[in-house]
Amino acid sequence: MTEDNTHDHYDHEGSKLGMWLFIFTELLFFGGLFIVYAVMRYKNGIAFCLAAEELNVSIGAINTVILLISSATIAMSISSIQMKKTKLTLLLLASTLILAIVFLVNKYFEWGAKIEHGLYPGSEILEQFGHGEVLFFGLYYFMTGLHALHIIIGIIFIAVMMMKVKNGKLNADRFVQLENAGLYWHLVDVIWIFLFPLFYLIA
Amino acid sequence: MDNSNLPNYLEYKGKYKGIFAWIFSTDHKRIGLLYLYSIMAFFIVGAILGLLMKFELIAPGKTIMEAKAYNAVFTLHGITMIFLIVVPGIPAIFGNFFLPILIGAKDVFYPRLNLLSWWLYIIGAVVAISSQFMNGASPDTGWTFYAPYSFKTQSNVLPALIGAFILGFSSILTGLNFIVTMHRMRAPGMKWLKMPIFPWTLYGTAWIQLLATPVVGITLLMVVAERVLNIGFFDPALGGDPVLYQHLFWIYSHPAVYIMILPAMGIISEVIPTFARKAIFGYKAVVISTLLIAFVGYFVWGHHMFTAGMSGTSLFAFSFLTFLVAIPSAIKIFNWMATLYKGSILLRTPMYWAVSFLFVFMIGGLSGMVLGALAMNVHLHDTAFVVSHFHFIVFGGVGFAFFAGIHYWFPKIYGKTYDAGWADTGWIVFFFGFLLLYTPMFYLGIAGMPRRYYDYVPEFHFANILSSFGAFIMIAGLSIIIINLFRSVRKGEKAESNPWSGKTLEWTISSPPIVENFEEIPEIK
Fold this sequence. Notes:
With 203 residues, chain A is an all-alpha fold. Chain A has helices at residues 12-43, 45-52, 57-82, 86-116, 124-128, 131-166, 176-200.
């Protein structure tokens, strides 16, 4: 080894371990919010169910399907890069990217409609409801907002991976970063799998 | 081994010049020193703030500041000392510098992420401190940011919260980096149970950093949302629950105490065997107790909230678990004692610090047991007793271990020796000042003096004078120590590569170490 190549050593297992540790961190990050959700819902059970009726189950369901498909496409891209099919890998990553953007667009319209109806923290309309509704929408915006932020980070992550696949930095021998991007994307997906029933399906 | 023909890490010339060769360096040793200098700078600020508080308390009534200013000073003192100094502290400085060397590696697993951690640390620090210089009042919530005051107060709490959040990220990334480093980069033959104790304690710490810090991160973000968006989680007026904030805060902040103290114990476990000329007694017991402390430490947060309103069952459970943590800590104390027993003890500056660590740590730990007892806690909660206990553990524990570490590893880090006479003088003055500063506060707390008050009844005057004088003496000791070390970096004589006859890997390489630590990765037999 010469002087500056400490960055060059390649350890697939080690990199994946690092990503898993990061995922643990993320899980506890959201874990704090799920605790708050549990406590609030325990105290305001009925109000939560009533407030949930304001949410649009079909948009939520469509977004769930979108994320599940995007998880599948990114998983397939990891298999295809190992089969040296660069074009297919790029295609699959692009589909993941597009699905992620569609998810955000849906989210935008969903939030927009709520805000138009005056359902946002601090609004006059929301203040006329009880405490339970206020907390429900507070949690709804906070948790889905934080999740959307993770989607945006994921989009950037995937875009960078696409560039790296394109210029050959990621290939059949060195693809751990793509695998890590996949792990991250599955995490984002899993969190949504919990958010969807907890907010949309309790009505 | 003499490998002085290769450039050492202090002289090495890379891509960048001048200061950029440091702040863009991915060498774990340079990053360790970056942390050392930044943490020392903040420490001096924090110590001056503490000194101001002791000036205020030297007489009843207003001495140098009003209640509001006092609130701002103890808040900033707490935020700097906790988030900028003791939490990153030993892992960031000595962990970065010595972890790779102690396990026979050339660097940490993610060198660039390591540099990013330092940058995040600096950004977080700047954001947190900017709260002092913006329009409006300085934060006055105390370092705990208790709801609902933290979102009702008009002071600049927002930058402090965001700063603490960023600092949390820096801490998580350091922990992540260390875990992967220890899993993947140990030298051939270094099995898990051949690792020195200091890396083991860093391992326990890293897991706490990784799994507890995100909880406080999200909690601080919720307070931010509370202030900015009126979201209501912790606001009783909107149906929220302020006690829930306390739970979430302490779920992190109690384990954080073990983030602080475990690496301190690690340093002591390196220093004592070296100067007792013996292998550490009960290596496995020390390792297991380290992991036990890290594990049990997750489940005791409720003991910060005995008077906040909890069910009787939770009170008993948290009290019992708190007593349980004492067992692995005591195992360590006994192991250190047994290591000293019949050792051929060499009394040098690091050893003075290490044995005085045992003394203050035991006082801190036993006073913690007093606070863990439910009935006593009702009497002592939020009094000067708690402040004293806390400083015995965190300043006595972490601080003394830090000074033990810096005097132990100084010759390795800089390749220079320091003036032992002045170092010993600094230690005895500091030690005496420390005891005089905090011991009267135990009495004050039992007598009923609340913490965080700028004023007190005349009956408490004498003990407060003692305590303030202790602070002056301690600061004098601190100045001697720091000036001595700074002078020695410039003017010290050249150090040998193994001045203390240490047995761990860092003593087999030259002082200061070469850029990639080892010419050849050592094989452990």
